[in-house]
Amino acid sequence: MTTIREIAKMLGVSFSTVSAVINNRQYVSAAMRSRVEKALRDANYQPNSIARSLRLRESRTIGLIVPNLGDPFYSSLMRGAEDYLCSVGYRMIVAESREDWKRQQDYLTSFSGMITDGIILATCGATDEQIATLPDIVRGAPLVYVDRCPLESKGISVSVDNVQAASDATQYLIGLGHERIAIITGPLNVLNASERFKGYKSTLRVHGIPLDRTLVRAGDHTEDSGYWHGSELLGLANRPTAVLGCGLLITLGVLAAIREKRVACPQEISLIGFDDFAWSTLLSPALTMVRQPAAELGAAAAKAVLKRMREPDQNMVDKVLLPTQLMIRESTAPPAQRNPTPK
Amino acid sequence: MTTIREIAKMLGVSFSTVSAVINNRQYVSAAMRSRVEKALRDANYQPNSIARSLRLRESRTIGLIVPNLGDPFYSSLMRGAEDYLCSVGYRMIVAESREDWKRQQDYLTSFSGMITDGIILATCGATDEQIATLPDIVRGAPLVYVDRCPLESKGISVSVDNVQAASDATQYLIGLGHERIAIITGPLNVLNASERFKGYKSTLRVHGIPLDRTLVRAGDHTEDSGYWHGSELLGLANRPTAVLGCGLLITLGVLAAIREKRVACPQEISLIGFDDFAWSTLLSPALTMVRQPAAELGAAAAKAVLKRMREPDQNMVDKVLLPTQLMIRESTAPPAQRNPTPK
DNA sequence: TTGTATGCGTTATCAT
DNA sequence: ATGATAACGCATACAA
Question: Do A4-47 and A162-292 share a fold?
């Protein structure tokens, strides 16, 4: 690591002259400028970004924390965010909380300790007490929630209209003639999960279908969770005719269970998943899914942190909602048993 | 952001005393210690990690740069790396080069500017000239290559025995009776791609099968690339009976082409892919794949950087190779046309 | 036009 | 046991 002082010493000039060259101050003589520039090149000088951030109080990098980088939904989301950030001269670094509050907290404090200028967070599930400590953890660092925000979120969040999305999916299944519709939710202390559940419940109610508690399962956004709840659901004496998986991994787990038990999908059971991803159509069967505009969510969140950084109104609250789309494919069909009334 | 000085001022003590408490210096009186500690808690003090790294010349975080975070192979790899790093008290941040040298270089210089203590790099494709500039870019920062290393890599790398792996796959296809075996490689200026191609060629040669240039395609690790090369191969008058996709995304692209053209797999065409991933069995057909131990690769790379940091021998060269495994599933079968000689 | 001094928030050495 | 001071590498206001 060559420093600005070393360069200056080599040239026999003051280090502030070197600094002036680097920062394009106008009043450096042309001769001096080119001498310094040459030395800079020769020594392969790169400014020490740590020292720079300390002095300038900015790093021009944004931190993104997601629960699971193995989930294609977050891959797309982060790509959308990074594309936007790069286009406006920012860098992005990402960390994975692994659905673990401890780890999330660790990265949060690390990021908020001036490593990043702002934070985009898709939170892991958390208790109310944990959530309450969030402000203390980020200590005023610009933060926006994306996709998943805590139940009691004040600040800024960008997500999808989850109750509408879940309602659409449920509605579609009911339209196909389903009445025994199971749901596997994410952790209910996260807003998107509770909203999806709400959309499901209300749509059922509107159609006069009673809520059957044996058909609602709280999962945890892992494939395993989908697999186990799916297996149990399939093993039920009075098996559901359709299941709604409130997350990509959960849904893939359900699909694994369905295939393992050799239950015909969609003939014997319909499956709708959340999030969608690039390879949905390559699965067997191709999955009907609620598509979230993942990249757009990421970009919107990125835009939002940047805005939040410029307007440090601590109490600003803003929720941006993006539309979803039901991608109808091969995993849904009218139920087999009763006479279907397909829409 | 409360600073050490502010705490000191509030307490009317010297800031170096506060620092002494924070850093557990022994010679602080119990009374003073508890007074300071209370103030620290009350103010929700967190050390400024930037200032800390500047002073200590270490950040206890490792940077990982991958070409594509949407590739499940890298998701697993990074998880393996992070698990290991966390277990020994390090953090990990990741950046995505998007197969773009410019972006990779940017993150590389950023990371090497003291933001991270070490770097794990799965490089994007690059020209020899670009590779030659790498040492200047990282400026002595501890670096290890993982999965993908440049053709002329001196340093340390951890990967899989790619020639062996490609050879195994080719061998298996030949054993099934295939002779017209196509290959879609990654960028050939990256070692793993060229090695896989080498393994393919040599195995063909050993069995006296001439290399047909129309069957070898250089792809670029995108699904699109797999899709287009796959489509062309399927459109050939003398169509191959098997194809070897040298990357997960490439292989999924080929599968998309196969399904779109409604070619029966494996009856009319066999497909083997590289990398494997969690949902291979949910695809239709379930894909036969060369499994790389992705998480182990990540962990080994993490271990290697840490070691490299302790032993700053600039010229150390070390290649650790992990074994692969051929996961035989439903996408491979003897060729239809001629009389198969299944092994 | 160039050089000197100061501070960003730490940690660490040395006086007191 | 506590406090003053320097240093990490940089940027900048101000003096020369």
Answer: no
Would you say B221 and B215 are in contact if contact means Cβ atoms under 8 Å apart? no
Measured at the CA of B116, the angle between CA A148 and CA A109, to 5 degrees, comes to: 40
Contact B86 A79 (CB under 8 A): no
**Is the distance from CB of A113 to CB of B50 less than 8 angstroms?**
yes
- What is the pTM assigned to this prediction? 0.93
A139 part of contact set with chain B, CB < 8 Å:
yes
In sequence order, the 6+-apart residues with CB closer than 8 A to the CB of B126 are B101, B150, B189, B190
Q: Over 90: is that where the pLDDT of B339 sits? A: no
Alpha-carbon dihedral sign for residues B220, B225, B229, B230 = positive
* Residue A122 φ/ψ, nearest 5 degrees: -105, 100
Least confident window among A116-120, A199-203, A315-319, B233-237: A315-319
User: Among A184, A244, A256, which Cα is nearest to A220's?
Assistant: A184
pLDDT at A1: 78
| Average pLDDT, integer, range B63-87 | 95
The answer to whether the CB of A317 falls within 8 A of the CB of A154 is: yes
- So what's the pLDDT on residue B311? 84
According to the model, what pLDDT value does residue B337 have? Answer: 61
CATH topology of domain B4-47: 434 Repressor (Amino-terminal Domain) (1.10.260)
Instruction: Classify domain B162-292 by CATH architecture.
Output: 3-Layer(aba) Sandwich (3.40)
Question: Could you give the C-alpha distances from B36 to A109, A133, B1, B11, B333, in angstroms and in order?
Answer: 21, 22, 17, 8, 72
**B53 in A contact zone (CB under 8 Å):** yes
What part of B 243-262 touches A (C-beta under 8 Å)?
252, 255-256, 259
Q: CB of B199 within 8 A of CB of B163?
A: yes
- The nucleotide minimizing the C1' distance to residue B17's CA is D2
Locate B326 and state its tokens.
């051929």
CB–CB of A136 and B44 under 8 A?
yes
**Cα atoms found within 13 Å of the Cα of residue B101, Cβ hemisphere only:** 14
How close does chain B come to A197, measured CA to CA in Å?
26
| Both structure tokens of A321 | 């909602």
Residue A119 is predicted with a pLDDT of 97
Q: Residue B143's pLDDT band (boundaries 50, 70, 90)?
A: very high
What is the spatial order of strands in the sheet that A216-218 belongs to? A216-218, A181-185, A242-245, A270-275, A288-291, A325-327
Identity of the residue numbered B278: A
Residue A232 DSSP label: H
**B56-159+294-321 fold:** Rossmann fold (3.40.50)
Domain ranges of chain A: 4-47, 56-159+294-321, 162-292
d(C-alpha A262, C-alpha A280), whole Å = 20
Tokens 């990398």, residue located: B275
Residues of B in contact with A76 (CB under 8 A): 70
3-state secondary structure of B238: coil
Q: Point out the nucleotide closest to A17 (alpha carbon to C1′).
A: C2
